[in-house]
Amino acid sequence: TRRSKQAKRSGIVHHTTLIVPGFHGSGPEHWQTWMESRLPDARRVTGIDWELPVLALWAAEVRREIDAAPGAVWIVAHSFGCLASVIAAADRPAKVAGLLLVAPAEPRRFSLFGTREQYPGGDSVAAALPAGQLGSPSLLVASRNDPWLAFPRAQELAERWGSRLVDAG
User: Fold this and answer.
1) Distance between terminal CA atoms of the chain?
2) Smallest Cα–Cα separation from 47: which of 32, 66, 60?
3) pLDDT (0 to 100) of residue 40
4) Do β-strands 42-44 and 15-20 pair in parallel, antiparallel, or remain unpaired?
């Protein structure tokens, strides 16, 4: 874009904001859609079937978007999108400026092929997630009444990934 070319000439570092919705996507009234409409270099990750939460497929698409960005990216993820984003970010720490992880989904609620309700047997996606710090600054926002992730579990994940935890109440 014209603005990107001007930024390069002036020495301004270009950043892209990647919006990574969760299971079922983020509709027109969702806060991620609102944020995307207000950030000039924001774009939603594409190529994901929002109704099929398969972690490996989602993480591959986030990785693809990170690789396609002209510079470093800021990742703004929600719910199951947080899980895919931490995997992709851990694989591309030099390209990720930071992550905003809002209301991550409980990894144990998902199998490698979808939700536990759909695929009750087998391993959860918890073992596929990074075991240590992400390599990029991160902020994990959690609430105390989230039906998808208990607050003590959010605290565990934030500590594990080296994320600053924000208690949204």
Assistant:
1) 40
2) 60
3) 87
4) parallel
